[in-house]
Amino acid sequence: MPYTTNPFLPKVRRLAVNDVRLGRLTQAQVARKYGVTRSAICKWLKRASSDHREFIHTLPSKPKSHPNELNKDIIVQIIKMRKKIKRCAPIIHAHLVKKGVNVSLSSVGRVLKRYGLTRNKKRAKWSTKVPRPLSDRPGALIQADTIHVVKRDYSRYYIYTVLDTFTRLGYAEYQKRPTQKNSISVVKKANSYFGFPFKVIQTDNGIEFGQRFAMRLKEKEILVRHSRVRKPNDNAHIERFNRTLQEECFSGRMPNEKTILRQLKKYINYYNQERLHLSLNCMTPRQFVSKVLN
After folding, report:
1. 272, exposed or middle or buried, with CB in 10 Å at 0-12, 13-18, 19+?
2. What is the pTM of this model?
3. Would 125 be classed as within a structural domain?
């Protein structure tokens, strides 16, 4: 019978064997009943244990041998060489070739990997270990992000967004490229526009919010922390602000790059000074800031 992954087959084998052992049916009758050959029934009888309740599990399909498999002596030499010189596969391969061992580089790499003698390469990721602060005052926790706008010719431009999670003050700016220099400039402009100091800025792990961005802001006594990878809910406030911007400012359409500067400036003034927020007891962000700071 061909190899199968049917999870119910081990139980079927046990039932077939029990039919023969208990004298209910002959091997030929059992083979017809379960739709298999008589040789399969014979093999199941040999594999079955004395316990009538034990299933006969499917054997793995992995071959026991291969005509082109490596000689065991060569495998031993590879492992010994690795433990002796503690070098990578190309170096070990070069040493073995000098000794007259006929083995390929790929085979050396596979042996090292199979026996756990390689180290997985991990990309060095720079991150700031800044605890998430409590958003209990203006500037305590700022969130920043970028909206990627793809044009018809597949080129892109970007909209930087900044939001204070306590007062809901928002800021947006158009940029042609998402660089750390532009990110620093946008945060400085947003800080000046909001009118109160920033303490902590939380961003995603984009290249525009890297080490240089954090170091330059640290000079201004602003700490930078990054959200967890593939966890957009960590930046839920700015993600909702991005959606609001796209729905209300651009009406769900792709922004026109020629008029986007004027659109953003007009909408940000409306958002902060006229648009009522349910989370602020139906006040505008500017009204809420005035109430809190006075």
Report:
1. buried
2. 0.60
3. no
Q: Are residues 178 and 266 in the same domain?
A: yes
**Cα gap 180→132, rounded to integer Å:** 22
Q: 199: which 2 tokens?
A: 């303490």
The Cα 213–Cα 184 span in angstroms is 6
Residue 171 one-letter amino acid:
Y
pLDDT tens across the length of the chain (294 residues):
456 788 899 999 999 999 999 888 999 999 999 999 999 999 999 999 888 788 998 888 878 788 888 899 999 999 999 999 989 999 999 999 999 999 999 999 999 999 999 877 655 455 558 899 999 999 999 999 999 999 888 899 999 999 999 999 999 999 999 999 999 999 999 999 999 999 999 999 999 999 999 999 999 999 999 999 888 899 999 999 999 999 999 998 889 899 999 999 999 999 999 999 999 999 999 999 999 988
Does residue 130 form part of some domain? no
Full domain range(s) for residue 168: 142-293
For the stretch 33-38, contacts whose Cβ atoms lie closer than 8 Å and that sit 24 or more positions apart, written own/partner, are: 36/1, 37/1
Tell me the two tokens of residue 42.
């014979």
Judge whether 159 lies within some domain: yes
Cβ atoms within 10 Å of 180's Cβ, excluding its own: 18
Q: What is the 3-state secondary structure (H, E, C) of 80-113?
A: HHHHHHCCCHHHHHHHHHHCCCCCCHHHHHHHHH
Cβ atoms of 180 and 213 closer than 8 Å: yes
User: What is the domain count for the chain?
Assistant: 3
38 C-beta neighbours (distance < 10 Å), count: 14
Q: Are residues 107 and 218 in the same domain?
A: no
* Gap between the Cα atoms of 290 and 167, Å rounded: 10
Residues 166 and 276 in one domain: yes
Q: Measured between alpha carbons, how far is 68 from 162 in angstroms, rounded to an integer?
A: 61
